[in-house]
Amino acid sequence: MAVALVGLPGAGKSAVGRRLAQRLQFPFIDSDDLIERRIGCSIRDYFEREGEQSFRDVEQTVIAELAASAEGIVSTGGGAVLREANRLQLHNHFHVIYLRSSPEDLFRRLRHDVKRPLLQVADPLGRLHELYAARDPLYRQAAHDVVETGRPSVAMLVNIIVMQLELAGVIPPGSRSDPTG
Ligand SMILES: Nc1ncnc2c1ncn2[C@@H]1O[C@H](COP(=O)(O)OP(=O)(O)O)[C@@H](O)[C@H]1O
Ligand SMILES: O=C(O)C1=C[C@@H](OP(=O)(O)O)[C@@H](O)[C@H](O)C1
Q: Which EC class heads this enzyme's classification (predicted)?
């Protein structure tokens, strides 16, 4: 069982992925955590020191490794779909779910964020609009399913995704029962 979550920064890939993994009792892997362990510093510092392309090279290596053998729920970084090789690797190994969110929702969730280098600009909402326009088609290319994240809470999104995974035959029927009620 291998599921990957893709989407813009703030889409809920980590928050939803962690809860989904707990619910299904599968390992949770945050690919940005793996990258930070490899580079030995925060992604934000690495962007400043080495530049975005160098970060994308590390990201591509980590995605290729995950796509070779990872099991469980993987939360990817927002730019993981930028390279075609990554999109193909993700699509072929994982059941990929695109957590779609509007730039306005993302802005609301991330307005106090200081960790995401691409949003440390004078006009983060404008940047989110640009990222959405450039990437929405790429997330759709990589994904098997699209889930709207605008209204549902994280807990509701977990329920929606469990249902989709059952319908797609990725997990057996019956996984839907929520132990917390
Ligand atoms: N559907 C949602 N409703 C409300 N808040 C959310 C939702 N999804 C994510 N969040 C919140 O938005 C913030 C960013 O989510 P996160 O999971 O870190 O995004 P990503 O990993 O996709 O960048 C977190 O504080 C998270 O709790
Ligand atoms: O959108 C992007 O290009 C990036 C998103 C970040 O991950 P999140 O989507 O978890 O913020 C992280 O990988 C890096 O800062 C680049």
A: transferase
pTM: 0.97
Helices (H), the chain: 13-24, 31-39, 43-50, 52-69, 84-93, 103-110, 124-142, 154-167
pLDDT tens digits, one per residue of 83-134: 999 999 999 999 999 999 999 999 999 999 999 999 999 999 999 999 999 9
Q: State the closest ligand 1 atom to the C-alpha of 9, by its place in the atom list counted from 1.
A: 23
Task: Walk me through the domains of the chain, giving residue ranges and CATH numbers.
Answer: 2-167 (3.40.50.300)
Distance 78 CA to ligand 2 centre (A): 4
111 Cα: distance to centroid of ligand 1 (angstroms):
12
Q: Which ligand is nearest to the CA of 131?
A: 2
CB 56 within 8 A of CB 82: yes
